[in-house]
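Next up, sample data.

:::
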Amino acid sequence: MPGDQLFINARIATMADAAGGYGLIEGGAIAVRDGAVEWVGPGVDLPEACHEMPRRSLEGRLVTPALIDCHTHLVHGGHRAREFEMRLEGASYEEVARAGGGIVSTVGATRDTDEEQLYAQALRRVDALIAEGVAVIEVKSGYGLDIETELKMLRVARRLGEARPVRIVTTFLGAHAVPKGMEADAYIDEVCLPALEAAHAEGLADAVDGFCEGIAFDTGQIARVFDRARALGLPVKLHAEQLSNIGGTKLAASYGALSVDHVEYADEADAAAMAEAGSVAVLLPGAFYTLHETRKPPVDAFRARGVPMAVATDWNPGSSPMGSLLLAMNMACTLFGLTPSEALAGTTRNAARALGLGDCGVIARGKRADLAVWDVEDPAELSYRIGVNPLHARIYGGVL
């Protein structure tokens, strides 16, 4: 375990403010013992028991919890730059998908890419997120649509967390698309559910996701996947209400989903269902931007109902080829109207909640000492700047 460490002379945004602010501490100090926060507060109030700890001055810099990217598809083969061109030429996301592009095109590339190549490519993406102060990354499967490739993707995801000082949370997304030559119901029975059983047996899945949309799976089909997840003791989450409203959010809420993601077409009733279930709304502005969407998530309804809002990159090769969580924060503010404090909460406290993690996302006694140190004066700068990475240092489990 890392040794004791006292970080002093810092402006600390603890993100533990229940009222929704930054929880700022001026002239603050953070005492770390065995990889966890022992004490945090104004330096003048430092407990005597911490006085003998080795000290490191952060020279007045801002410290936040390390960032959390709670929705990514960063294990995949190939790219879809040509589809980017097609959309610019006027094709819709649905038209691209129905023409054999979209998710299905990445499925072919991922099946054809061996595990070592997938691993090497994904590792570069992980490194890009770490360089922005990210300490936790959720990684989904879903580009296999057969048992072998789904498991291959999840094994790669697990390896990423062994190769780098980063926490990887894996999500089984077998119900992502219907492969060519199969009907949706047959795919669920013959591929998706057996793949889920196999992933669980190998300890490869921390949660289960699905894509509930007209071009993917309906609520009845997703419910069958969620029933199996529940039987296996795995939490669920759902891509829902991205392109239309077919009831995915209410379904996810009825299963106590950790999160419902995209939610551009969610309505007041959906917000109420999420609030009752305690589900997090994960906002993905990268996909909204890339697909030239105009329908925005009901942010005001989420606020009114007290639905926590997280923000993530949705890093994938098609609808959100974006590898910057800082840019996602800016987009969440400029495109969806979040405040900078909401955006930072969305990539720390609420992102942890979207993954079912209770030991990170805030700077507080007993939490993991996963911290980001920034060369900025004000925490709003993290959302304000575009294409700028002001990270000074990332502290992972108390290790600088």
Notes: The mean pLDDT is 96. The radius of gyration is 21 Å.
